[in-house]
Specification:
Herpes Virus-1; 17 helices; binds adenosine-5'-triphosphate; alpha+beta; 5-stranded mixed β-sheet; Rossmann fold; BirA Bifunctional Protein, domain 2
Length: about 525
Amino acid sequence: MTQDELFKVLVAHCKEYGFIFPSSEIYDGLAAVYDYGQMGVELKNNIKKYWWDAMNRLHENIVGIDAAVFMHPNTWVASGHVAAFNDPLIDNRDSKKRYRADNLIEDYLGKIEEKIEKEVEKGRKRFGESFDEAKFRETNPNVLREKARYDEIHERYKKAEETNNFDEYKQIILDCGIVCSISGTKNWTDVRQFNLMFSTQFGSTGEGADKVYLRPETAQCIFVDYINVQKTGRMKIPFGISQIGKAFRNEVVARQFIFRMREFEQMEMEFFCKPGTEMEWFAYWKEERMKWHKALGFGDDNYRFHDHEKLAHYANAATDIEFRFPFGFKELEGIHSRTDFDLGNHQKLSGRNLQYFDPETGEKYTPYCVETSIGVDRMFLTVLSHAYTQEELENGESRVVLRIPAALAPVKVAVLPLLKNDERLTGMAQEIMKDLRYDFACQYEEKDTIGRRYRRQDAIGTPFCVTVDHDSLEDGCVTLRDRDTMAQERVPVAELRARIDAKVNLTNLLRKL
Ligand code: ATP
């Protein structure tokens, strides 16, 4: 199966098993908006808890908040979103398809890079042991020609980006002969700016309604609340404020399922520090966040840092943690050193003093800030795209199993009486479930053969199944089946809690950090 096909299968699986539905599907849906179903919400909550506890419990100097989605409109003037939160968009006149002009150019550059890598691979095969890659890259005429083309376009693109020169974006697209993937033509409109913020009216029109925005990120609430938290929490620099919440962006191109949505959720943490120490904290948070990802066991090779070449005007360092999604390495999380840009601007526009007074040194300063920002939904996709596995079994059958880390799985244990018509079995199974449900998310299932019930639990990623059979009535033992190995073991009912807990407890995951 190609990665493309795999991705389609995953999307269908998410719907079939109650993880994710298209929003308002009975009305044919709403583009790039999705609902989390009965399984999805549990997984999502577990992801959020893993992040929240890692931030707030494991760092004494980090506290969380939950701010409103609506904010005073000046917030977005100070943050620069009103003036500059734009995407350059372009339409193909024949297909009426809309694209981000920068993405079209970047994809084109990516293809040149791929060509170069293919040449290098060819060389490696041809020369075998004696292959000198550096020399090959410096001398092979095909590589040199592609590299020169890459550099020329890249140079023009970067300049156009820095100067917001949209005519040049279009000229690059035309010069490179980039065509629309639907119509195959180069019949492009001009490139236009498009602000990504959603706006709405606040208050009734009679009272003079104000235009307000749905927040495009959660970070600004943290900056605006910074002084309240610092004072009431008696926080000493360095300290952090974290938040999980909804964000809204009117994305131009939103075609990759929950990777790019118009309504999504972010988990952001702003870490305030003394100016001059931000690079140490930037390095610290890079490492901390990578550890958080790798503790999930999805394979270290599937992550990489992508340091930003071009920094936003307010940042003095920035990197992305990229994950290998089914459609390639893409940004999962951003880590940015934002200097005092945000607090400084809010201070100017609000006229409020947001400076920190250091009681130990007597100094006053506007703190610098290092931000970690990850999308809950992208993290969800990371978990599912790694977890989804189709397996051929030794007996010739196949199964679909979601190898979700046990601590994040939506259901931890399914309790199954072997037969549904025997009240002694169903009674005992229900007793077990009623006891376990205080500690674990449980499901009780009695319909269908035991094999089919195991498959259903595999498909939603349940780490354990507990089966009650006739022997259980005699010896007080049940069969404990492991999702990943499918191994079955007889375990006394009294030991179940400890056995399950040892694998599914979030604490075990947190202890790895
Ligand atoms: P991209 O380049 O992919 O548009 P970005 O650089 O605009 O992302 P940030 O503004 O840094 O993203 O947002 C931080 C995080 O929020 C991202 O790393 C991502 O996980 C998540 N995120 C951003 N936009 C979306 C979206 N439209 N849908 C889902 N998650 C998003």
